[in-house]
Amino acid sequence: MGGIFGYVCGHPTEVCVVKERLGKLTYRGYDSAGIAYDLPEQLTTLKVVGNISSSDMPPLKGVSSDLALGHTRYASRGWPSISNAHPLQDCTGKIAVVMDGIIDDYDIIKQGLAREGHRFTSTTDAEVLPHMLESQQDHLKGVLDIMSRVKGMYAFAFVVHGEKRIYAASLGQPIVIGVGNCNFVSSDASSLVGLSDKYAVLPESCAAVVSANDIKAFDAHGNPIALEFNDIKTVSPASKGGYEHYMLKEIHDIPSAMLSAASSLMDKYLELAGMIVHGAKNVYVVGNGTSLHAGLISSYYFSEAGVDVKVVSAAEFPYYALNNVEVGSVIVAISQSGETSDVIRSVRLARQRGCAIIGITNTIGSRLTSNSSIYLPMTAGPELAVPATKTFVATLVVLRLLAAHAGRQGGVISTSEIKEIGDSLANLSRLLSQKMPELEAEGDQMAESLYGSSGVYVTSSGINFPLAMEGALKLKEAALVHAEGIQLGELLHGPIALASRGYPVVTIKPSELEAEELYDKIKQVVGFRGGKVIKLLSAQRLAAPKDLSPIVNSIPLQFAAYKLGLRNGVSVDTPPGLAKAMIM
């Protein structure tokens, strides 16, 4: 995954323009970066591990070319390293490719290319592209061939030594083309502000050939198409994809993060992880905060798959659970950053006792990946706001698929049922893409109802009970409001004493029919005592299946926390006293 930016000009232009504009795309990736530019004698590439602004990037002042293409990466396949940084080249060094997204079947393609004699220097999926293009004389035909053969959700662009043009294609990730004194290709129109006069979004499953004086676009069959250009003045120069805050952008990223998480998980690793879980003496799921809540939801997934798991806070794990782990035990460790100290400590202590570790993280190359027997990437893309939003959903996707594969090993879940789960995730992702405005409006109404309250209960039962705790955590983090997540029945055992004189109680309708009577009773009791009942019915309204109902219900809760935080004057991306990775 990552951000793409390149230019093609009719005259030499300073290559540092690419470096500067990639800096506006670091919300798409920031763990490595690179730039390729064409000179008369060769195609030159420069790479760095870390942010594009790193002092390790060779100086570009005074370096000019009429063709340059760069990339800022967020590792999903292959660790952050110089060899895995884009641009990636073919065996001749004459083609340089950058890619944003995931290729599903790259391992099969790579094996075929290796048999033909192609030499691979990285462990990324994107490297298959330059080698596929290497033997093509007609590079547009090569693009169309890739589009028809390579499965996944991705966009790519490439340059060829001696050819003054950029080739690009969009297959589920964005490509934007800018027109100005030079012509440009980018992942985001905001990076074109100040350089272009007009821009066009390349339609999905289409390709483009961009030169200094001409832009041509084609559909997947090679038929010419017309692009619709817009005035660049309509685009915000903000580097948050046009959103006011990272948190807002990342909530809107949830549908694509779901697809990315599901498609990036390779079957062979899911099957291996499922086998490890199924064959374990005992299984512990550990995490902190949002990751812990995702783990608690996963206990419902594992239970239905016939696997008994114990979900424990990573902060508590060393004090009692550690005594019960040994050779044959399995720890499923969750950390979005991969650096959470409590998680790393628990993992290291468990490894000393011979445990197998399955790491689930959004950060390839983190301490969690290096301490895991096998790791499963969330592949949600960079999450820069401190309150976790899309990574929570991506974690649930990974855990849902892991539990299903563990269940298949035990004969509880069939191969066809696993496919149905994958289809259900894809269908829900598409539905959420359409329904985000409604879910945001629902969150806004909830925030308005909560504004001015000194505290709030968030309550539910069944698989949505852990989501109630997660919703309460979001309100604490993003809105600085005291909130407590409580199981519906437990509300009657003491906490109900506060639910009077307008005290708000957010009731998430359970997805289990058995819990409906209790749900209705709680609403009546809270109303009778003078509390304010705020109903959340999103999963039922969108007819979400029970296992995916926490995903749907999480979105209006996240929007509510964000909107209430704005009303309360909170810096929602960086709330005071909080950090993205707790490494104390």
| SS content category | alpha/beta
Tell me the number of strands.
24
The span between the termini is 29 Å
At the third CATH level, what is the topology name of the largest domain? Answer: Rossmann fold
Describe the secondary-structure layout.
Blueprint: E1 2-14, H1 16-22, E2 32-38, E3 43-49, E4 64-73, E5 88-89, E6 95-103, H2 106-115, H3 128-134, H4 139-149, E7 152-160, E8 165-171, E9 176-180, E10 183-186, E11 196-201, E12 206-211, E13 215-219, E14 224-225, E15 230-231, H5 246-252, H6 254-264, H7 267-278, E16 283-287, H8 290-304, E17 309-313, H9 317-320, E18 330-335, H10 341-352, E19 356-361, H11 367-370, E20 374-377, H12 390-409, H13 415-450, E21 455-460, H14 465-479, E22 482-487, E23 504-508, H15 516-528, E24 532-536, H16 538-541, H17 549-567
Helix pairs in contact: 6-12, 6-13, 7-12, 8-12, 8-14, 12-13, 13-17, 14-17
